[in-house]
Write a structure and sequence with these properties.
mainly alpha, two-stranded antiparallel sheet, about 280 residues
Length: about 280
């Protein structure tokens, strides 16, 4: 059966479909992530394991892998009260080693995935709020090309910061969207709560500090009534507080002295003293 459309018209439709496909946000996001991965990780083996945080995290992860799942991270077989960060990153590193073996690539894989997740989250958020694919791609490119993002202690190493950045970016972006709505969906609020908990379980109070910026935004934008007038926010807040308190209680129970050490290392010692 012959088509009713003339051949030139069919060609025009085909070209239009191709152009529409090339302009698809999903395709553009995929290209951005592919280029970001190539830039960030093609030469990852050129960077040896870094002293201090990365090397200590690796010891924590390998020991956890050897002795099994626990809330308590160890160093030299003893509870680690010097590195008192919660164990989410160490769990992920140990899981990666269980799947792929004890290699630099496997130990750094959680940070690598988190870094790409942050790029994807930023692209999605900017595209959603501005409606511009170009602006979203530009924002993602600027992030990837930032030395603080691709340098040491971040996307390319087994440190806390790449995973922390992913969860903080996630809950800040989702909170912004929720605060624009009179009645945010329960699923959205649940995702915000999960992201906040994961940010804390990655790097303790550092995961909560950006929340001060949210409080400032709410005050300046005059959205206090919306925040306190929506029961979902209260439920989410109570869920987050309960989860974090439960973790701290269980961690102290399994390794007495943790809370005192964590208070000094992550709060008082870090913010209450000068360099």
């Amino acid at each position: 059966m012959r088509s009713a459309l003339p051949i030139p018209h069919r060609r025009t439709l085909a070209r239009s479909a191709i152009r529409a496909g090339l302009a698809s946000p999903t395709l553009i996001a995929g290209v951005v992530l592919l280029l970001a991965a190539a830039f960030l990780f093609v030469d990852r083996t050129a960077m040896p394991i870094q002293l201090w945080d990365e090397s200590r995290n690796i010891v924590n992860a390998l020991e956890l892998r050897a002795r099994g799942f626990s809330l308590v991270t160890t160093y030299g077989g003893a509870p680690d009260l010097w590195n008192t960060k919660p164990p989410l990153l160490i769990w992920l590193m140990a899981g990666s080693v269980a799947l792929f073996g004890p290699s630099e690539w496997a130990l750094r894989l959680p940070s690598m995935i988190a870094a790409l997740g942050t790029v994807a989250m930023l692209f999605w958020f900017v595209r959603r709020t501005t409606g511009s694919r170009f602006t979203a791609a530009l924002a993602a490119a600027l992030l990837v090309l930032s030395p603080a993002f691709f340098g040491e202690h971040s996307a390319r190493t087994a440190d806390y910061d790449a995973l922390l950045l992913f969860f903080v970016t996630a809950y800040l972006c989702l909170l912004f969207l929720a605060l624009q709505r009179d009645r945010p969906a329960r699923t959205l609020l649940a995702l915000i709560g999960v992201a906040i908990c994961c940010a804390f379980l990655t790097k303790s109070v550092a995961g909560l500090v950006p929340g001060m910026g949210v409080a400032l935004y709410v005050a300046v934008a005059g959205r206090w009534r919306r925040l306190f007038g929506t029961p979902g926010y209260l439920v989410t807040g109570l869920g987050v507080a309960g989860t974090l308190l439960l973790f701290l209680a269980l961690r102290e129970w399994q390794g007495p002295g943790y809370l005192r050490a964590a208070w000094f290392n992550d709060v008082n010692g870090r913010f209450g003293s000068s360099l």
